[in-house]
Design a protein that fits this description.
Number of helices: 30
Oligomer: single chain
Structural class: mainly alpha
Order of helices and strands: HHHHHHHHHHHHHHHHHHHHHHHHHHHHHH
Strand content: under 5%
Distance between the termini: 31 Å
Largest sheet: none
Length: about 675
């Protein structure tokens, strides 16, 4: 029942920079851990001032107080800062509106879904939407007769703040997303991309990021981009078909990083809205993956996370620069040191790699299932996979400039799953630079997801060279997992609710076990079981609560138990699996365990079949046959994918009946 991951239904792209779930909740806890709590009352006093400059200072101070400080942010949140700032969006003074929107933007990015939900519930959209036509009109004027620089910059800042807020709010809930759909943002947002040469690149990227998020599995936005204004798709194509920009590995400036990010974002948008209507390309046939996306994305994977981590560690350890007193809380000022700018540039570079991996993961998930075509079992090249993006082009080959094969693509991915010292710091030792830690852990996880999506397609088929290569990937994945939890045996701290701040470690394990299952199926019968790995998989299966993860653990165990020369490992695994069948507490894991037992002992002449006979597995399977049928009937066909799951379960139950009958007839 393994399958590639295509979309995340609960959440789409996540704009949160620094997860803070390890911080205790509650005002008392926030007050006890905040080092800036004494600065909060003056901020509220300033925002309420009759003096516009004071109000702008107060709003700007909010952004300074919450910067990488979740305790102070939560304390401000508890004291009602959101309501106060939303009210200031209607302030008659432009500078106050800009600073208030900037503070709300930063709260939304750093605080995530909880704060964004509060903003939406307090009807922030009603205060935001009136500015859309005003900004559009102002920018149209700038394009022909630029006014004073100060006014132009204020409009640009306000536009970027509001666009980012729309992005964050769209992640909050389907209700918020539908409300934003009703605003009809696409003409507004696309105008920034169409006039990108005359606008700040950061603002253009904010618009592209918002479009990318809104077009992810969102029919309203997809339709607006594909069939709305005829220039939308050509405008998007013009971004990615322009001259190639500096490779990410040699980028030294923020502007170069932003230029690369724009191209990657537009790749994601085009992938989201594919297939591209032929009329948008002038009737020209376009293979999106082959012609555009893969040539842009694959070079971005050649980045050294270790080097980036080392630079960030060095800067963070030795740079203790403070904001000059005369610049503190100054509205619209850039009071960052050179070191801080460099840290932001590195983070942006890594975010670009993360985004490229997200898009690539979707491409890998859309590859055809090779097991469905036994006649082509030796071909695993992505270039020969028929992963065309255009409706009737599904049978076309990608034929990228450099052949991209399963194993060649896995090579850079393996480098990206290897944790750095900054990736998963222990909760007792906070990160030197939380934003970098956040993006590094995200890169590791999505790279593992790419591997999962690649190898889940191959199943158990392939040439010997592919199997040997997959064995190398198997060992590399286990090696990286050994570094995810730090010192000690992998898996021991996973999922422990008493150990706060380990959520990303757990997420990495959940994604990795899917990749391990795909790899194990490629190498079924050839992997030599490692006793520690077997134990970890069994422990992991016992710890996780998600049925999908349990199924993946069980499936992986079933594959590695089929090595002909590993009779003792086969015994350990089969005893674990038969115990799952015996207890039958949860439907999907139980059915997967039944399926694995049948696969393992389908050949009574195998060397390890002795374990089946000595363990009396036949009697156990016979006794549990009726219970398994009941489990199948308990599967809810009304839930997403439920009907397919029920069909699979019915097939397992039939196989179980026939297998028991076959083994009984053998009379061994």
């Amino acid at each position: 029942m393994g399958k590639a991951r295509k979309k995340k239904t609960a959440r789409r792209h996540n704009p949160i920079r620094v997860p803070d779930s390890h911080i205790p909740h509650g005002l008392a806890a926030a007050a006890s851990t905040s080092t800036k709590k004494d600065s909060i009352p003056p901020v509220f006093h300033q925002i309420a001032s009759a003096n516009a400059t004071d109000r702008a200072f107060g709003c700007a101070s909010v952004s300074n107080l919450i910067h990488n400080d979740p305790s102070t942010r939560r304390l401000l949140q508890g004291k009602g800062i959101i309501d106060v700032l939303i009210e200031k969006l209607s302030d008659p003074v432009e500078e106050v509106v800009v600073e208030a929107s900037g503070a709300l933007r930063n709260l939304g990015i750093d605080g995530g879904h909880e704060i964004c939900a509060q903003m939406y519930n307090r009807n922030i959209l009603a205060s935001m939407t009136p500015y859309i036509p005003k900004i559009s009109s102002a920018i149209s004027t700038f394009l022909t007769a630029p006014p004073t620089s100060m006014h132009r910059n204020l409009v640009f800042q306000l536009a970027e703040n509001l666009i980012t807020l729309f992005w964050c709010l769209s992640e909050t809930s389907n209700k918020a997303l539908n409300a934003i759909n009703n605003v009809g943002l696409m003409p507004f947002l696309m105008a920034f991309l169409e006039h990108r040469a005359q606008l700040p690149l950061a603002l253009v990227n904010a618009a592209a990021q918002c479009i990318y998020v809104l077009s992810d599995d969102n029919a309203s936005t997809i339709e607006a981009l594909r069939t709305g204004k005829s220039s939308f798709v050509p405008s998007l194509l013009s971004v990615v078909q322009s001259d190639f920009v500096t490779p990410v590995t040699t980028v030294k400036s923020s502007s170069e990083t932003e230029a690369i990010m724009l191209r990657v974002l537009v790749c994601g948008i085009l992938k989201n809205i594919s297939p591209i209507p032929p009329k948008a390309t002038g009737g020209e046939t376009l293979n999106l993956d082959k012609d555009i996306i893969l040539p842009i994305l694959t070079p971005l994977l050649n980045v050294s996370l270790g080097d980036a981590s080392s630079v960030v560690e060095a800067i963070s350890s030795h740079s203790k620069s403070k904001i000059p007193t005369h610049l503190q809380n100054t509205p619209g000022s850039d009071h960052k040191s050179p070191d801080e700018h460099e840290l932001e540039r590195i983070e942006a570079q890594l975010r670009t790699v993360q985004l490229a991996l997200e898009i690539l993961s979707g491409i890998c998930a859309s590859l055809p299932d090779f097991e469905d075509d036994p006649g082509d079992e030796a071909e695993f090249d992505i270039e020969d996979s028929g992963a065309g993006a255009q409706g009737n082009e599904d049978e076309d080959a990608l034929h990228a400039g450099t052949p991209i094969t399963l194993l060649s693509l896995s090579t850079p991915l393996l480098a990206l799953i290897a944790p750095t010292p900054l990736s998963f710091p222990p909760p007792s030792l906070p990160s030197l630079h939380p934003p970098t830690t956040s993006v590094l852990s995200a890169i590791h996880i999505v790279a593992l997801e790419c591997l999962n999506n690649l190898f889940v397609k191959v199943q158990g088929q392939g040439e010997e060279s592919v199997k040997k290569g997959a064995e190398g990937v198997w060992n590399a994945v286990w090696g990286s997992l050994g570094d995810v939890n730090g010192p000690g045996r992998p898996g021991l701290t996973f999922g422990n609710p008493a150990v706060l701040g380990t959520e990303k470690r757990g997420e990495a394990w959940l994604v990795a076990v899917g990749a391990l299952w795909g790899l194990a199926r490629v190498c079924r019968g050839t992997l030599v079981p490692n006793a520690e790995q077997v134990q970890i998989l069994m422990e992991l299966c016992d710890i996780v609560t998600e049925e999908k993860a349990k199924v993946q653990c069980i499936g992986t165990l079933g594959c590695i138990a089929q090595n002909p020369g590993s009779i003792e490992a086969n015994k350990v695994v089969s005893q674990y699996l038969i115990n799952i069948v015996r207890t039958g507490e949860r439907p999907e894991p139980t059915l997967q365990a039944v399926s694995e037992i049948i696969d393992i002992y389908s050949d009574e002449a195998s060397a390890y079949d002795v374990n089946f006979r000595q363990g009396n597995y036949l009697e156990i399977l016979s006794e549990r046959s009726g219970a398994v049928k009941k489990l199948v009937k308990s599967l809810n066909v009304k839930r997403p994918g439920g009907r397919k799951l029920r069909g699979w379960g019915e097939g397992v139950a039939i196989n179980m009946r026939d297998f028991v009958r076959y083994r009984k007839n053998l009379r061994l």
